[in-house]
Design brief:
Layout lengths: L2 H11 L5 H13 L1 H17 L6 H15 L10 H26 L1 E5 L5 E4 L5 E4 L4 E5 L7 E5 L1 E5 L8 E4 L4 E4 L3 E6 L6 E7 L1 E6 L2 E6 L3 E5 L4 E5 L5 H4 L4 E8 H12 L2 E3 L8 E7 L3 H12 L2 E5 L2 E5 L5
Parallel strand pairs: 5-7, 16-19
Antiparallel strand pairs: 1-4, 2-3, 3-6, 4-5, 6-9, 7-8, 8-11, 9-10, 10-13, 11-12, 13-14, 15-17, 18-19
Helix pairs in contact: 2-3, 2-5, 3-5
Length: 318
């Protein structure tokens, strides 16, 4: 939010704005829900504060702000009653919608795994590990409605409760279970999703398409086609990130680099043939730099790092 927004918002709340300012302000609020929510909070706070007597220091500070606001050049203000009524109705609607949205935000718990994987025990005793860089939200009345929203990737171990299905929503898919262990990964901003089931049975839905997955099964949602399809479960490392380790035993180089890219949420560019080398090692909670050292020592790979992108060139297999 910039200073201009707060200045104009304050002038409107104080009824000191021009019709032109009001119209432009309304256009901005309609385009940006975050601005509308912020204005709704400001208006609600001001209206609520009018019920209480402010201490003298607050009055002095507000007088300073009013003086500053009034120093702004004022344009001609049309006082037609219908314009005032229309604008007042628009503001009331925006304030009501903003407060409703804000109230919805307050009714959700928010977990954001910024620095590392984050383990969460939900109110029903289900265990979730939110992968670094991912976000999870769930209702505060979770025991009544076991509904969650996921951005990124998380591992779920769901407590069985026949009367309350456990539902995870991504941008474009819905996953419903009664009790199971599985990995759900929203792959990108477009909303592509992969689901891997380790235990139990899972319903995987996108629009009218649906699949039932059981233990050892996996599926992919394609946001371009809107379709669901079964895919290979892949290596154990696809879900073992939850244990902070990667385990390779005579694994081909393509799978090794694919699993490492998934584990660190990076991209790896290479042109190595599938039979270039096999790799055996356990990487337990290693940093990316430590993993690069291991790959260099064992496989003699040269790796150039640019942010979240690795470029791998062929070395000599040892």
């Amino acid at each position: 939010m910039n200073e201009q927004f707060y200045t104009i918002a304050s002038r409107i709340i104080l009824d000191e704005s021009s019709v032109e300012e009001q119209n432009e302000f309304l256009k901005e609020l309609k385009k940006d829900p975050e601005l509308a929510r912020e204005f709704g909070e400001m208006k609600l706070t001001w209206d609520t504060s009018a019920l209480y007597e402010r201490p003298s220091f607050a009055n002095e500070d507000w007088q300073k702000l009013e003086t500053r606001i009034h120093q702004k050049p004022k344009q001609a203000f049309l006082s037609s009653s219908w314009q005032k009524m229309a604008f007042a109705a628009s503001l009331a609607l925006i304030a009501m919608v903003s407060w409703t949205l804000w109230n919805q935000v307050l009714s959700w718990e928010h977990i954001e795994a910024t620095a590392a994987n984050q383990e969460v025990i939900l109110p029903d005793m289900s265990r979730v590990v939110v992968k670094k860089g991912s976000e999870l939200r769930y209702k505060k009345n979770f025991l009544e409605n076991r509904s969650l929203k996921l951005e990124g990737e998380a591992w779920f171990e769901v407590t069985k409760d026949q009367g309350h299905p456990f539902t995870i929503q991504t941008k474009k898919t819905r996953t419903t279970v009664l009790g199971t262990a599985f990995d759900l990964h929203e792959l990108n901003e477009a909303g592509d999703v992969e689901l891997r089931v380790k235990e139990g049975k899972v319903s995987f839905q996108a629009g009218e398409a649906a699949l039932i997955l059981e233990e050892g099964m996996a599926a992919h949602y394609d946001s371009k086609t809107g379709g669901l399809k079964n895919i290979p479960m892949g290596s154990a490392n696809e879900v073992d990130w939850v244990n902070n380790k990667l385990n390779f035993n005579g694994t081909d180089i393509h799978t090794v680099l694919k699993d490492i890219a998934h584990y660190y949420e990076i991209t790896i560019e290479h042109d190595l043939p599938p039979d270039y080398c096999v790799f055996s090692a356990e990487l337990g909670n290693f940093s990316p730099e430590e993993t690069i050292e291991v790959l260099d020592d064992i496989l003699s790979l040269e790796i150039k790092v640019e942010g979240n992108h690795w470029k791998v060139t062929k070395g000599t297999c040892r």
